[in-house]
Amino acid sequence: MLRVRLEFSGGAELLFGGSKAVAAELPDPHAAGTTTVRELIAWTKTNLLKERPELFVQGDTVRPGILVLINDVDWELEGELEYRLQDGDTVVFISTLHGG
């Protein structure tokens, strides 16, 4: 099992039943340390998302307007969807979209 901490803020937590943080245990079907953020997003959608998936995912990634940080670093600097998760990583999803 791969253990990661998921955090949701900026309104994203509302899509996850109000949860601001989740200690997730993901199956690591490959060799240890080979599960990617792409697989994490799919797992999160299937196992944690409570409502309005169109506000969180678009295809196999997060929709525009969702900022993703991996261990406090913008995921664009870490390889985005191809980043290989490590046990103990923290992945933060922050919604930058606000209604009005």
Automatic annotation (TrEMBL):
<comment type="pathway">
    <text>tRNA modification; 5-methoxycarbonylmethyl-2-thiouridine-tRNA biosynthesis.</text>
</comment>
<protein>
    <recommendedName>
        <fullName>Ubiquitin-related modifier 1</fullName>
    </recommendedName>
</protein>
<feature type="modified residue" description="1-thioglycine">
    <location>
        <position position="100"/>
    </location>
</feature>
<feature type="cross-link" description="Glycyl lysine isopeptide (Gly-Lys) (interchain with K-? in acceptor proteins)">
    <location>
        <position position="100"/>
    </location>
</feature>
<comment type="similarity">
    <text>Belongs to the URM1 family.</text>
</comment>
<dbReference type="Pfam" id="PF09138">
    <property type="entry name" value="Urm1"/>
</dbReference>
<dbReference type="InterPro" id="IPR015221">
    <property type="entry name" value="Urm1"/>
</dbReference>
<keyword id="KW-0963">Cytoplasm</keyword>
<keyword id="KW-0833">Ubl conjugation pathway</keyword>
<keyword id="KW-0819">tRNA processing</keyword>
<dbReference type="InterPro" id="IPR012675">
    <property type="entry name" value="Beta-grasp_dom_sf"/>
</dbReference>
<dbReference type="InterPro" id="IPR016155">
    <property type="entry name" value="Mopterin_synth/thiamin_S_b"/>
</dbReference>
<keyword id="KW-1017">Isopeptide bond</keyword>
<comment type="function">
    <text>Acts as a sulfur carrier required for 2-thiolation of mcm(5)S(2)U at tRNA wobble positions of cytosolic tRNA(Lys), tRNA(Glu) and tRNA(Gln). Serves as sulfur donor in tRNA 2-thiolation reaction by being thiocarboxylated (-COSH) at its C-terminus by the MOCS3 homolog UBA4. The sulfur is then transferred to tRNA to form 2-thiolation of mcm(5)S(2)U. Prior mcm(5) tRNA modification by the elongator complex is required for 2-thiolation. Also acts as a ubiquitin-like protein (UBL) that is covalently conjugated via an isopeptide bond to lysine residues of target proteins such as AHP1.</text>
</comment>
